[in-house]
Amino acid sequence: MAGAGAEAPAAVEVAGLLGDWAANGHGPLARRLAHALRVAINAGLLRSGVLLPPERRMATALAVSRSTVTAALDELRGDGLVVSRQGHGTRIIGPGNRALLGARVGMHYVDTGDGINLAVANPPDASHLPELSLTTADLMAWGSGHGLEPLGLPALREAVARRHTAAGLMTEAGQVHITSGAHHAIGVTIDALVAPGEAVVVDELNYPGLFDLLDHHRARTVGLGSDRGGPDPHALDRLLRAERPPVVFLQGGVVNPTGIVIGPARRRALAEVFDRHPSTVVVEDRTLVGLAFGSPPQPELATLCRRAPVVTVESISKIALASLRIGWLRAPVTLTDRLAQSRITTDLGTSVASQILTLQLLDRLDDIAATRRATLEAIVRHASSRLRAELPDWSFEEPQGSSGLWVRLPITDSLPYTQVALRHGVQVAPGHVQVAGGEPSPFLRICVDRTQPFVDEGLDRLGRAWDEFAARPRASA
Question: Does the domain at residues 136-363 carry the CATH identifier 3.90.170.10?
Fold first, then answer.
């Protein structure tokens, strides 16, 4: 955030910085809010000189009464962390002096440890996996003498290369880097290809972690409009001509958060646009490609592009187990050295133990994905039916894959409601974390990748939270 004399950030931004503040500590809400603000100030998330939003707007964003905000600020005034002047608002005068970068995943997706988490779309446990084994002898056999393989175990890189080749994209092991998940692979690619201040074109609705990575690398995010078919090829062509970005980020498979699947005709149209701009590298994230309902996986974009360079990112996190932290990138030969240099300067390799376990899974990954699709399709249908019957004011299109429901609420900003939901013991993601510019959004994302009893209890709690929220008098802005 800006330094001395800065104008007030949006109330929604302040609320986002505080995370699940109401669930932390004891005592009245005002005391817990004061504590959360004090922590944010001392950590530098709210910097000295920043003007806080008006109390009424903060109350609306935090889903509390104005008196709660007033009491919390009174406590901070007593601590000498803020100062208020009649007609001029309340300004931070505490010690914080560091800006926050990349807080969308950390603030809204990382498990709070309490209640039911319907914010994250990961397998809840390993019960759907076959038996795996790992011994000391395995570590000795597969690990190198010094224990470091920065680009991944040769055997796993070769197995991944065979997988790409079998799918129609000729690949050598040298084109593959094993990473600690898809998020890491995307970060390595941005670090290697994007300089601070350069534009990166992305779907305006996207994976929150991508925005965190772009913020961290100080890239300039340029949102691309989409419709129910996917990204608009004509808008993409205009942006590539105007911005000349080094990188465009595209989701293959199921698109997060909308749940659509980009069809073959649209993918060919996008590839034709990319081929007209071969100086731009396309990064295709195929993490969810195996979780599309009722249709075979789409071929890799790299098989459709004739001139444009394509870096393909994949992961086992959504199909097998996120805690293994295994993903990979597959790059054209012209980019492998640049990506390897970036990787080695920031990371010396992914867990050998996780790579050995992944080797045991890779040949069965498609079968595991088929089981996961059937499970997810059933629970998505169940959750969709309940939401339509019990919360008719909410609207959504049923997803074409994975487990995320992108739900529109009859309000302008879903964040205050998610704060109330947290107090009812259920965690969902507010829509603004999935918007390129971070603007307030009426949407929220509900991920139902859980057993039915957990999903049902989570939906019950969301319903009770909505009853409470809808009955509250709305504070004027």
Answer: no
Q: What single letter denotes the amino acid at residue 45?
A: L
Q: Which one of 3.20.20.70, 1.10.490.10, 1.10.10.10, 3.40.50.300 gives the CATH number of domain 11-92? A: 1.10.10.10
Buried b (16+ CB within 10 A) or exposed e, 272-308: ebbeebeebbbbbbbbbbbbbbeeebbebbbbbbeeb
Cα-only R_g, the chain? 23
| Residue 44 tokens, joined | 């530098």
**Residue among 168, 169, 188 at smallest CA distance from 178:** 188
Whole-Å CA distances, 19 to 33, 57, 188, 204, 430: 11, 17, 27, 23, 11
- Given a contact cutoff of 8 angstroms between Cβ atoms, the answer to whether 329 and 116 are in contact is no
| Residue at 372: amino acid letter | R
Handedness of CA 265, 267, 269, 275 (dihedral sign): negative
104-127+367-471 adopts what CATH topology? Aspartate Aminotransferase, domain 1 (3.90.1150)
Q: Which residues pair with residue 116 across a beta bridge?
A: 426
208 phi/psi in degrees, rounded to 5: -60, -35
pLDDT tens digits for 346-405? 888 898 999 999 999 999 999 999 999 999 999 999 999 999 999 999 999 999 999 999
Tokens 């075979």 correspond to 296
